[in-house]
Amino acid sequence: MIVSAERAxxxxxxxxxxxxxxxxxxxxxxxxxxPPASLTIIVNVGDDFDHLGLRICPxxxxxxxxxxxxxxxxxxxxxxxxxxxxxxxIVALGxxxxxxxxxxxxxxxxxxxxxxxxxxxxxxxxKDMCRMWGIVHTVIPASDDPIxxxxxxxxxxxxxxxYFVQKKxxxxxxxxxxxxxxxxxxxxxxxxxxxxxxxxVICPSNPWVSIDPLxxxxxxxxxxxxxxxxxxxxxxAGETIKGPAAxxxxxxxxxxxxxxxxxxxxxxxxxxxxxxxxxxxxEEIEDLGLRPLxxxxxxxxxxxxQRLAREVLEFGMSYNAK
Length: 322
What we know:
The chain has 322 residues and is of the alpha/beta class. The chain is built from 14 helices and 14 strands. Strands 5-2-1-9-10-13-14 form a seven-stranded parallel beta sheet, with helices on both faces. The longest helix is centred in the last third of the chain and has 19 residues, at 302-320.
């Protein structure tokens, strides 16, 4: 039974797991369709790192900037209508030039870093920043504890931003580890909202470095697997629209496809959404014991985000209507 999107927006309690550009886009689509009390977005913090003395939270900022409609649509990161005066001066003075920080973006990192040094948790700082940016839905980092993603490559162990930005994803990956995750704790509210959720939506984020570190925080995976969980594939026709997920799969000896994404999550999934160009994979998905939904998953604009979000919600409501 598929019910209307209107009823879905009034009835479902949704938790979205997100990171990166694809995750941010679907999170924004869901936010456009759901009232604030019905949606919580839990965001990866595995790619957080320190740079020029500042704490940078790339996934968290991408999600928040996108929700606030202040994200740079051309780069996929940073702020809209950005200027680069401070960065240009940093480079002129001999500072690192591989990670670009715009003036508006820099303000976020400065305030966040100062508050962290004063002992405030990342979740509280994020909540306050969301309020100041006009974000009415709840955004929570997966953990207040640092769990930096280490990319083990043929060139040695790299922190994620070194691999992703400085090395431009060129080194061949061998495995991923999340430093200190075994001692991390879910941020306040994370477990409660998962327990209260009707549906968990895994956004079309990189499974290896946006979703895995989030699920690796002790307690989160165990709670998520008790719920109805729907994932949206970030891989279309064997490739990603943005990011290195398909490259990572190949270098780990796995053929990238919507099916391999489904297999990545098969222990917790109820349903799986993938693109129409991969429609021939329908039986493979069903053979995994998953209920498939085939649709256009490409989000080029705001209309696409909301369209896909409505389909996700209708798909989620169909489970709860059984």
